[in-house]
Each structure stands twice: as C-alpha cells, then as structure tokens.
Amino acid sequence: xxxxxxxxxxxxxxxxxxxxxxxxxxxxxxxxxxxxxxxxxxxxxxxxxxxxxxxxxxxxxxxxxxxxxxxxxxxxxxxxxxxxxxxxxxxxxxxxxxxxxxxxxxxxxxxxxxxxxxxxxxxxxxxxxxxxxxxxxxxxxxxxxxxxxxxxxxxxxxxxxxxxxxxxxxxxxxxxxxxxxxxxxxxxxxxxxxxxxxxxxxxx
Length: 204
Description:
The chain has a single domain (9-200), classed as Maf protein. By secondary structure, it is of the alpha/beta class. 39% of the residues are buried. Strands 1, 2, 3, 4, 5, 6 and 7 form a seven-stranded mixed beta sheet that branches. 33% of the residues lie in helices and 23% in strands. It has seven helices and seven strands; from the N terminus they run E-H-E-H-E-E-H-E-E-H-E-H-H-H. The chain has helices at 16-24, 47-63, 91-101, 137-146, 173-177, 181-190, 195-200; strands at residues 9-11, 31-32, 70-80, 83-84, 105-115, 121-132, 166-170.
C-alpha cells in the first residue's frame, strides 16, 4: 500500500536553538518562516496563558501563507512571581532580570502549537521550575559583557554560559532552552508527521 506523502514541515521560528533541538530527534524542517507578531503580556493574562496564546498566534500567522503544510511554533516565557520577564534587548533589561532571578527560583513556560495540513491546531505546554544560585556582582557583569543574554527570555540562556548559574531544575530542560521535545514530538505525531521514523533514522 502506497503511503500518502508527508506534508512539508514549517518551523515558525528562526531560532538556532529550536533547530538544534529538532535535529536532536532527527527532525529537519522543510521551511523556516519566522512569525512576525507582537510578543507582549496582555492585561491580567497569566504567563502560562501568554505562552500558549503566542505559540498559537505564531502558528496561525505562518499558516496563512503555507496552506496544506504542518506548522510548528513555540514561545518560551520566563516567569518571576506573576510577571513574565522580557526577552532582554538592552543591557539594563538583562541586568534587571539577572538581579531578580539571583538566589531565587522561577518558572519557565514553553508553549507549543502545531497546525496540521487540514488546519487543525493543537497545543501543549511544559512548566519547569529553575533555581538560580546567588550571583555576585562580578558574575553578573561578566555575563552581561558576554552578550549571550541578548534576545533571551529572562536575560539568560541555560544552554550557554549561564548553565553554571543553575542550581536545580525540575521539569523540561529542552523546554527551558526553547522547545520541549516531549510535547513537540507528541503534537507532530498527532498532526501526521512521522516522528518515529525521524528518530529511528534512515534504514540500512
């Protein structure tokens, strides 16, 4: 019996971290199409709802230009208390984030949305608790000087230099990096993407 062709997979992100995470489980998107939407917490919106909403908005924005394809989108939110910390774009923003996270625990919510070829959108989210050690002024200054914080939610990248600041993590490491692989694989499978074949690799 001839199998139906698999629709192309579109990643609605230009993040090299998300590409690397997908490659880790043998998945290579056919198309990279970053979504251009405003990423801001709505008044009264819970950070968990924000991550899910933004992932869905990104997926739908890209799906409009790619009908009949599978669309994968994600959004990661670093939560301190009830507030979603910004994706640091300036040194003062990064400095403020690091000072708030120093010596404390915070949450990281990663929302994932997948739209299948029929236009059905499915959502999942991972919730991870992260504990940061108390940072000295010298450690904060050195990290700011590295520039690694730029564009990162909460002003840090767990997979980079900031990894040494993490005292404990409870949840999804890949979710903190930017794409929870467990949730992503399940959503892609439900959308008809051959995740198992990708993980198995080419047959010999």
